[in-house]
Design a protein that fits this description.
Largest sheet: 2 strands, antiparallel
Number of helices: 9
Shape: globular
CATH topology: Helix Hairpins
Order of helices and strands: HHHHHHHEHEH
Strand order of the largest sheet: 1-2
Mean pLDDT: 86
Length: 239
Amino acid sequence: MSPSKPKSRRADTPDDAVEPRSSLWLLLVTLVVLQFGYPISLLGQGWTAAYLMVYAGAVAYVVRTAVEDPRRSWPLLVAAGGLVAGVIWFATQPDDISATRGMLVGVGVLQAALLFSLLRVLVNPPARLAIVDLLLVAMSAYLLLGGVFGALAGIMELTSPGSFIDQTAGDGSPVWQTLVYGSYVTLATLGFGDVVPVSPWARSMWSLEAVIGPLFVAVVIARLVGVANPLRRNRDGAQ
């Protein structure tokens, strides 16, 4: 009888899952800080610069993803380059409307590219990803969804002033930070009523976001349940 071959370390340890999971944690923490730490950018230009530097975490995630799969990750690299260009322009001319718009375009494009990349993982998850990894992907995608709509709202307001009204502002004109807040209020269908879309396109966009928010959660839950059952059966069968 020939001796059985020793099991490889690759099969016994979750090394393949460690790198993606650490990258996913990095992305999720970065998004939480960015999407909910934006009030710090209202304290002055220095704080705004510190806030924008947090995007380095998203860029680091893009770089690590590109190293693992360069063929499919080139859109992320292009979007990350656009973000860096937009942030540098905004940092040198913070009071210029065009620079602010350029920064928001860079932010929106990168977040949209990341969102598309994560949705692709949810639809067709790699075999090496565990349920925990897919949960991290789903949470990051949800945060990116609100960020994309927030960037679009900021661009719309700068391009067509008066598209939104901030009931708490003296002149009623919202800054981009306020529209990030309004985007997540809309995504979660809270509807506080302090930030209101006025123009037809603004109303249409936030109506779409209000529909997508709950629909996204429902679809993702169904998808995770569908993925979890086969994984559990495979694990039980292996035992």
